[in-house]
Amino acid sequence: MLNNYLPILIFLAIATAVALVLLTLGSTIGRFFAREPADRDKLSAYECGFEAFEDSRMKFDVRYYLVAILFIVFDLEIVFLFPWAVALGDIGVAGLIAMVVFLGILTVGFIYEWKKGALEWD
Amino acid sequence: MHTQITHLLALWASLPQIVRTVVWILIITIGVILCVAFLTLWERKVIGWMQLRRGPNRVRIFGMLPGLGQPFADVFKLLTKEVVVPSAASKFLFRIAPALALIPAIAAWAVIPLSPQLVVSKANAGLLYLLALSSMGVYGIILAGWSANSKYALLGAMRSAAQMVAYEIAMGFALVGVLMAAGSMNLGQIVQHQQGGFLAWNWFWLFPLFVVYLIAGVAETNRAPFDVAEGESEIVAGFHVEYSGIAFALFFLAEYANMILISTLTAVFFFGGWLSPFAGYPGIGHTFLGDPSFFWLGLKVFVFLFLFLWFRATFPRYRYDQIMRLGWKALIPVTLVWIGVEMIMAAIHIGPWARPWFH
Amino acid sequence: MLVEILFYIFATLLVAGALGVITARNPVYSVLFLVFCFVNSAAIWLLVEAEFLAIVLVLVYVGAVMVLFLFVVMMLDINLAEIRQGFTRFAWLGWITALAVIAEITGVIWRNGLGGVDVGRGFVSEPANYSNTLELGRVLYTHYAYPFELAAVLLVVAIVAAIALTLRRRPGLKVQDISRQVAVRAEDRLRVVKVSAEKRS
Predict the structure, then answer these.
(1) Each residue of B283-298: pLDDT tens digit?
(2) Given A31, A54, B47, C39, which residue has the most CB atoms within 10 angstroms?
(3) CA-nearest residue of chain C to B145?
(4) Of chain C residues 88-117, which have a CB less than 8 A from chain B?
(5) Any bridge partners for residue B61, and if so which?
């Protein structure tokens, strides 16, 4: 079985190598062709010509965290669905009912967040 | 000539398995990068034609086909541009973020079957691997946005991360439907299971899931009309606003490689991958056109890629709240309902679970 | 042989990554080291042919949980000097906790061994078409149906808790109701008036 995963490992290694080689090559050639010496204006962050007022790392709307948490929950739901879908032919009606109950419970959760307005983005 | 080819084939067969694998991986990687190069040209041409322009038509190769040399000219230009690292940036993360975006887009090809024989890895959990890789893709974007220490970049990264996350769920649910039909997570077997001509492919029974998958795919790749992450009218270029030269080119490469990937996956999951639409039909079913081959996969991928470009030329950009609304409140319920429908179909043995009239 | 070599490579990287998590000064780097650790442990799980669990580890932890961590760590205004101050003040508490955990782990292994696993024996590798996922699916939804449903309840509790903790309505917000927008009919909004043309004087 591991024989199937060795090519994946090699592929990952080659993809990494390709990306890093391209980056290094491009940066080196790019430095060679650079016209202007680096000064403060060239190296400052782009803000439509204004000087950056402050550090850009700021507090964010808590909504983004809520989306991330809900994503984890649904991701787990999908992970539970995968082996079930694969084994569907073997586990028959019992497995089907187990999943109906599972999805039913989670649909209640989904309806709850819908009604609560957690999915609103305003 | 003929003997030389047989010699070469014999030599190829005599190479150790690992060498052949590495050679195939290199061929696929370079192939994907070349496809990206010409896809950028094709995109500009198609959008040009749709807007009654000509698109790029100056750079030629050997004086032929106006515009064909454009991708190479672009590559040389980007290679010779300086990579500026802003002074306030987290230098190391800023430099490797483009690589983090590109690696998943290329490594995903490991499990994709290009023809009945040609696949790098026959891993059983191929589909799961793809999903895991596509969820890794978000790191390149978040880190690029954060490490640049620029307001626009950070806003773009947050938008795109939340958006990718929302559509990944819809995508995952759509894939559960495909799995239920195929009963395997191996992509080759998913294709095999759709055997039997145009109407036996998954799109017929899983049509809502196909639509959801395609929309989610467009959103996952941050393409128009879901490209608020770039939003050039508001946040300039989003997460890669501070990138220049080859570092920018890698993000570009990753985006287009992801487009090709999503198109290929749509073809594999819903349109029978390498299978021929005429398989089993009387007359043409027994000619070249009826045989499964890479030709059919390529054709399907081309069609879906064209859809990507067509969307970009046609649809105005969604607003951000509309994007989140579509992902959570339209696509996810549709997939849930259709999984329920599939459960009923599986219980009473119709559709892909019986297929009496396909055989 | 290759498996052993790979195991030691991944294990070394895992330990190095774990050290990185606790020594990195910037919390963002800590999170990234943790991501690196997860990827390496997934690779180690894969070496014992637990393909489903290995990839799910990457999918759930790297793809979802760590994204949340990154969101939090990146966007919280963390004043590093303040944290460092707290670090030295509460270091003794950390040491005691760490020692207690080490003592517990040692105790458990001392009493029970490694759960009957003969480490020196190695394992029988499965044939190429063996599907870990299928085996899991066969038992999880029938034999272990009850814990499986409990997992659903747990997830719903997580949803409710997340919403209760983070959802704040801002008062006085003007929101579009898209279904109402879509349901608008032309005759409610638009009146076509017939105006007779003026005579040219």
Answers:
(1) 666 666 777 778 888 8
(2) C39
(3) C74
(4) none
(5) B64
Rounded distance, CA B67 to CA A22, Å?
25
Checking if the pLDDT of C127 tops 90, the result is no
Identify the CATH class of A2-116: mainly alpha
The tokens for C57 are 């580890």
CA distances from B248 to A26, A57, B183 (A): 10, 22, 41
What residue segments make up the domains of chain C, in order of their start?
132-168
Amino acid letter for position A71: F
Q: Do the Cβ atoms of C72 and A66 come closer than 8 Å?
A: no
Structure tokens, B341: 């429908």
ipTM: 0.86
A73: nearest CB among C137, C158, C166: C158
Tell me which chain B residues have a C-beta less than 8 angstroms from the C-beta of C46. none
- Rounded Cα distance, C70 and B243, in Å: 21
Confidence of residue A122 (pLDDT cuts 50, 70, 90): low
Average pLDDT over residues B151-173: 85
d(CA B175, CA B33) in angstroms, rounded, equals: 27
pTM: 0.87
Tens of pLDDT along C56-73?
999 989 888 888 888 888
- C150 has a chain B CB within 8 A of its CB: no
Largest CA distance in chain B: 68
Q: What is the mean pLDDT of residues A3-10?
A: 85
Contact yes or no for B136 and C62 at CB 8 A: yes
Checking if the pLDDT of C178 tops 80, the result is: no
Q: Give B124's contacts in chain C (Cβ within 8 Å).
A: 51, 129-133
Please, what's the largest Cα pairwise distance for chain A?
Answer: 72
- CB-side neighbour CA atoms (13 Å) of C127: 2
